[in-house]
Amino acid sequence: MENKKNDTSQTPEVLLVNDYSDNKIKAVKGLNENGKLQTLSVNKKNLNQLLKVDKQGDFFSSFFTNFFAQLQNPTEFSFFKVPIDKAIGLASLMQKELDMNQNPTHELFLSHQIDPDKMIQAMEAQKSKQDLESNHYNPYKYNIDDIDWESLKDIGLSKEKLEEMDLLEPLLRGYKTKDLVTINLDLGAAYFSLDARIGLRKEQNGLIVMELQGVKKYPNLNTPLQGHSFTKEDKYNLLKTGNMGRVVELIDPLTNQPIPSVVSVDRLTNNLAVTSIEKIEIPQHIKGVDLSREQIDQLKQGKAVLIEDMTSVKGNAFNAEIQYNASKGHIEFLFDNVNKKKRYQPQNTLDNFRGKQIDKQQREALLQGKSVLIDGLIDKKGNPYKGYITYDQVNSKMDFSFNDPNSTEKQAVVNSDNLQSNTQNKSTLKPN
Fold it and tell me: In terms of domains, do 167 and 262 share one?
């Protein structure tokens, strides 16, 4: 039984793709020399020709970063990563879902979809790398030869291990690891093991040392940080969004001089991260929108800024707040419940449900808090079913139930045909 489990865990995965031009689910074979996507029908005959993904490896390795960077018109596709032995069945289910709903948000799609933001970040990182290389610019903050590799062996780290984990290059560029790394320390009489985010730091004597940040249960906001005591508002913002939202002067421990800085929480370790405002870089364009000078200045002050009419990877317009995160070292999107309710409501929320159109009378009933009977729905196996839907106005989403949630209040509303039929029956029974 154990061998069987191991075999399953090592099953390779393949890429499925939804091409928006024809709304068909296909399998990815690769790219041609011009960067055009090559696809095949998802069937048993073609499985051996498909592009394979190492399930145990980092999907956004250099190979797939190059793959997406070379892909022409990436916004015309949605990619899905699935086990090869389930590819045919999942592709069939996805196609049925697409045929019923042109813009599905089904769990089947979301559970396998490749994060479009990560895909774009990988492409932009690859482009930056190529630009830097073409300008003969050294992108590295630290020299690999200045690191004391012999000392790092004592905690289970080596140059070879960091290279194998795809961590060495980002460390040399001045970034912390994106994931936790297990550190082992053998003192002979005692053995320690902990998970930490690691980074490099240059000491005053010029020595490059490894900085380990262990995981804390909570961020320490009750102790002053470099001379700054956190206010109630500071604590609230840091715990809610991860960013303090304003610039404060922090005392540099090396020079003892005040430096205007922004503060964020590292969500992976709960440690506090600091960036001086002179090192903050804000892009001039985000998701198809040109930022104004005022917006850029507000972002450099650590504030959250609402950006409207941005374009998603799928080509849809959306609004969201963005803010600089000192831990990540770049802009991040803030999608909280308030934003979802007020700024990110889909236009077709009440137009259809699971491929079934909702008429005007049903929409009005939903907005009044009533339940609506929907018939003619199709499940994954192609079987028809029916049930009741209600509209959650707080979270702007539909809720489904096989039983009428408002039956005790007799508020259930059937579809428009049944309503019309009931009206005709009443008029027929009306006494003269």
Answer: no
Give 157-209 pLDDT, tens digit per residue. 888 888 888 888 888 888 888 888 888 877 777 777 888 888 888 877 777 88
Structure tokens at 139: 């992108």
Q: Quick check: is 182 in a domain?
A: yes
Q: Which tokens hold the place of 205?
A: 């004597």
Token couple for 400: 């489904």
Does 8 share its domain with 122? yes
Alpha-carbon 396 to chain mean position: 20
> Taking all residues of the chain, what is their mean pLDDT, rounded to a whole number?
77
Q: What is the pTM of this model?
A: 0.46
User: Do 225 and 205 sit in the same domain of this protein?
Assistant: no
164-168 contact pairs (CB < 8 A, 24+)? 166/58, 166/61, 166/62, 167/198, 168/144
What is the pLDDT at residue 147? 85
pLDDT band of 230, cuts 50, 70, 90: very high
Looking at the fold, whether 63 and 123 belong to one and the same domain comes out as yes
- Alpha-carbon distances of 216 from 189, 195, 265, 268, 272, rounded to whole Å: 26, 11, 11, 9, 10
Q: Flag whether 347 is in a domain.
A: no
Name the token pair of 111. Answer: 């559970």
Q: How far is CA 399 from CA 103, 149, 349, 366, in A?
A: 18, 57, 12, 11
